Amino acid sequence: MSPSHDPGSPYRRATLAPRDEAPRVAPPTGTWRLALPGGRAVLVDRRASAANLGLAAVLLIVAWLSLCLGGVPLSPLEAGRALFGHGEPMTVFVVQELRLMRLAAGLATGGAFALAGCLMQTLARNRLATPGIIGIDNGATAFAVASVVGLGVSIAPPAMALAGAATATAITFGLAGGAGTRGYRFIVAGIGVGAVFGALTQLLLARVAIDTANAAYPWTIGSLNARDGEALGVLVVGLALGLVAAQWLTRPLAVLRFSDSVAQGLGIRVRACRYLALGLAVALTALAVAVAGPVGLVALIGPEIARHLSSPRGVPLVGSALAGALVMVAADLAGRLALAPIEVPVGIVTAIVGGPMLLWILLSPAMRRH
Length: 370
Description:
Blueprint: H1 10-15, E1 31-36, E2 40-45, H2 46-68, H3 76-83, H4 89-124, H5 136-151, H6 158-176, H7 183-206, H8 210-216, H9 218-221, H10 229-248, H11 250-256, H12 260-265, H13 270-292, H14 298-309, H15 317-337, H16 346-363, H17 365-369
Antiparallel strand pairs: 1-2
Helix pairs in contact: 2-4, 2-15, 3-4, 4-10, 4-13, 4-14, 4-15, 5-6, 5-7, 5-8, 5-13, 6-7, 6-13, 10-13, 14-15, 15-16
């Protein structure tokens, strides 16, 4: 009797196994499989998860130091009690009215800038393609400053910055022609557009009274001091929605790092995904500029940190937002403490840190090969 007809042979037992018992396939190396309702599962990258948890822990520590340190130093216990309205009235005022609003602005603007930078870099396949470098920051700043010097500080809505960012993006697209968001032509066109909008901002400031120019000055260098609560609330909502939308785009963006033909072959609607991600980056940049001004190099530093910590298999969207928030809060804290009682605006601190990093990226072997 052949082995296939022997009831006791392993071949016979295999043919009688139930068909619905599919063999369990081990997840790829470096990932976890999380079971979902309905028999589905999702793969979670271990290294990216560890990086995000580490960034969140460091961000929590720096945020707590931001509440404790300053012109009126507080102990962690005093800051914690004041955060919930307990303790000396002056301590509660310092924490809740001054430092907490500043901290919230730093967290939201840093996360928005870095998330927008990660989206732009992924679309352009270029580490230099950040909103600040390709002119989106300057366009939003010019419109925000125009609203301030023309209508007063109280009427500087995020809609004006959004209009400026959209205008700068549209002009850059038009000048880039068929290059779209790819290649150095798009970046060079953005640099030129940004320079024009930067000159327009300086012209607006030069033609108004000194008091009005001083009121608009924070929008030109980036500052978290005395931020508008209404604009900050709009940014927080926009950042939350942006993170959800970015997570929905995680898989398409990971595929877009390859050629368009490969992405289309894998079922990705390339043009729709690209326009959606670009619109999301423009909106996040505009809302962040409306709160803090053009702190553009955060969009370069945040994704760079997240990219080095996370797995190369995916796009570090959440990691970039966490790293950007960390950079912004840490830079603001350093600006408040370094030359106290003189305060250094956060935009100057990030420029001091981001300038050498930009040169390092330009001189890296990977960039020279391009």
